[in-house]
Amino acid sequence: MNTSGLSRLLIPLNPLALFALLWRHRHLIRQITARELTQRYRGSYLGVLWSFLLPLVMMAVYTFVFSVVFKARWRSDATSEPSMGEFALTLFAGLTAFNVFSEVVNRAPSLILSVPNYVQKVVFPLEILPVVAVATALINSFISAGLVILGSLLLLHKVSATLFLLPLAYLPLICLSLGLCWFLASLGVYVRDVVQITGIAVQILFFMSPVFYPVSAVPVAVRPILQLNPLTPVLDSFRQVILWGEPIHWGPWLAWTLGTFAIAMLGYAWFARTKKGFADVV
């Protein structure tokens, strides 16, 4: 391979080039994201208020079912009575992170197929569509995270001392979701079965993730398998900083952030190398 061919191969793996592209199209990303958020509830009487009401209703249901009916507790400390809503808030904090991943991954395979008019426009930067999908999911999750914080104040009478670390807890989740979205958005154009496969995979991953249960509740022999789940450290970090007032475990966080950043770059490289054939397939 000559030098020019090698350089063309490595350009998609250049983080600076990717950041420059996203910065150049930042206004377009913001406009499309805002349009998607408004179109989601267009025609409904309450409009964008549904973004607040739906997670609020779900958190109220979780609080009643797990705190009043099951009287469930999360931690193994059985010497104290479980606080009202503690389990529900812990569960909802995990769901806040998981829902970002599931929304993005479930949407990714049909992301390009749903906008054939964009594909036909040579000048339109298709690379920003996965970014818009992640941004939309993040905005919804910010609302849910705010409700968890409010619930902690009302039900547990405290606010996490490490809440300021929440953006860092989001970072590996963003990189992972973005990388998989770039990869699946491209793959979904050529292999239409990906839509069904990702739906099943996300459903399996939901029950194999510590959303409803802590890792300590899993038999010791099975824990290494659960630790291989890419969402396990993300869910743990969310709960540590948003509810428990615990700092992030910096060693694992740094390793996982670098790993998910590599996934993001590889996903973008795959998208950039395969997008030339979209117009022939869509």
Question: How is this structure best described in words?
Answer:
With 282 residues, the protein is mainly α. The protein is 68% helix and 0% strand. The chain has helices spanning 3-10, 15-24, 26-40, 50-69, 86-107, 116-119, 128-155, 166-190, 194-207, 223-227, 232-244, 250-274, 278-281.
How do you describe this structure in short?
The protein has 13 helices and no strands.
Query: What's the SSE pattern?
Result: HHHHHHHHHHHHH
Give the DSSP E fraction (strand runs of 2 or more residues).
under 5%
Helical content band: 55-70%
Overall mean confidence score, pLDDT: 86
The shape is globular
Low-confidence stretches: 1-7
Rg, rounded, reads: 20 Å
For the record, give the distance between the C-alpha atoms at the N and C termini, rounded to a whole number.
31 Å
The tally of helices reads: 13
Q: Got a strand count?
A: 0
Class of secondary structure makeup: mainly alpha
**How is the biggest beta sheet arranged?**
none
Brief descriptors of the model:
single chain; 282 residues; mainly alpha; 68% helix; globular; disordered N terminus
Which SSEs are present, and which pair or pack?
Layout: H1 3-10, H2 15-24, H3 26-40, H4 50-69, H5 86-107, H6 116-119, H7 128-155, H8 166-190, H9 194-207, H10 223-227, H11 232-244, H12 250-274, H13 278-281
